[in-house]
Amino acid sequence: MLLKKLSNSLTFAVAVIMIGFIVFAYSASVNKVTDFVIFCIYVLGFDVLYGHMGRISFGHTLYLGAGAYGAAMCAKYLVPDPFLAMAVGIGAGAALGLILGPIAVKTKGAAFALINVAFNQIGYFIVLVALAHYTGGEDGVSLDFNSYGFVDFRNVHFLFAFCLASLVAVYWLMHRLYGSAFGAMLLGIKENETRVRFLGYNTQAYKLVAFIISTSVSAFAGSLFVINYGFANPSFMDPARNVEVIFAALIGGPGTEFGAVVGGTAYMVISNYLAKYITRWEMFLGVALLIIAFGFRKGIMGYVRELVDKRIKAGAITK
Amino acid sequence: MLEVIAYGLTIGGILYIVSIGFSLTFGSMKIVNFAHGLVYAVGAYALYALLPVTNGNFVLAAILAILASLPVSYVIEKFVIRRLYGKSIDYAIIASYAVLLIGVDIIKWIWGASPVPLSDPVGVNARFFTMEIPFYRVIIIALSFVIFIALSVFFKKSIIGKIVIAGLADREAVLSLGIDIDKYFAIVFLLGSALASLGGILYGPISTVHPYMGFRIVTLCFAVVIVGGMGNLRGTAIASYVLGMVMAVTAWYWGAAADAMIFAVMAGVLIFRPIEV
Questions:
Q1: Residues A139-167: what's their mean pLDDT?
Q2: The whole model's pTM is what?
Q3: Chain A residue numbers touching B93 (CB-CB < 8 A)
């Protein structure tokens, strides 16, 4: 029974995430693990659409980049206040979701995947060429953020703590979201949108809201990346980098918040620690994706979940 | 301005040749076949590898390159797309994306990450009234029109073409007539792949041949299909030439904006298109 309680408990999941990341950070490298934590927020944002609404976006870096450039432009041309930069970044992501969402959510499956790539290409062109005068083009912009007393984002320990707190906050929000009627509605849309519409719901509006949530969370991750690195360049919006988040969401197990965190961490560990042993990186990712597509559909968390459920059942029978 | 029209027709012709196969897979299976871009890139690279072998005979090298790229597309269709198609469209898309990634990396492995040089095989300029354009472009435009007419006849008159058109409109009805529609789609898939490879071969000498060229063409083909309508062959043709023109005119004013403009047009079409795709 303890196992069953634990496997559904939010407190337990949050505790595992916090302890896990803190131990990892202080036994490996705080700088790197801060990156991992931010990437997990990004995967959580991506998974709103994929795991819960069944829409896979192949252009999600656009929304990450929107947050990154929103924050960077605010810090460069307005005030270098980290909190305002974050707010502007999230606002940029939300605004982009609001503008592009109505077009994107009309589509599904393959069309949705590629619509986002197309938008991503436009965004990449805008930051790389069209607005190069402001964004610094290929070189990007380097930034310096204000600090207030102990609220100092140049202090790696504070930054790590802040990012971890952000991850927990986003995790909690997602948990609440999926547990709500809205989450059930998204699952309904994933399973059979026509039926949900026949029940009298305006599925378009629900999909749009989910889309905006996803772009905002991704943009939040983007602005955190900028604060972490102290610069923004077009690689934040590079369409060729979309495979990263897709891979992370798939390997962790789509459709669970914990799976997104596991997948994000798994991807970052592979790309940070194993990449030097893997000479052909894209081939590695491609082969891994093929394996996932053919036989590892549930991801790491899916299999852990299955194992736990089996144990719970076995326990119930012996009692 | 005449030059711009000629350039637009060249790009439009290439887009048409490449998109036709993409549009058929999209229309029949609702799958974005990323591997289509791989076949396009393989065509151009195979040409680059075969030109020295054939002592610079472009036509022979082109035919051999198309033949060399066919097994690639056959294997992709048979072992990746067909297997996943019945189970999940999402995973079929992911798998075809994975195939493109693997293919790009193999190309980088063999030929390196930087672009390889391919030069205009004709090298002579043609004069029409006051304008002067490379004769090679005239050949591409003419060839694309020939292919357009040939495909129109193929889909109207031949039994394979008729079955495929019927299958695009109503798959179940064709199946209930006892026709194995998948077999015919597989034939047309190979035909489309051969054309994609031809597109890469034709466009390689007048653009840059680099490992990521497949990614770019997939998104451009997608824009063509969205503007022209899924599995709509006439729409694909019209959209190709229109978008080719859009690219040429945009490039005339601002070279770097050409691709972005195509996607902006596509987004505009999607806003006003009532049906959901």
A1: 89
A2: 0.89
A3: 56, 109-110, 113
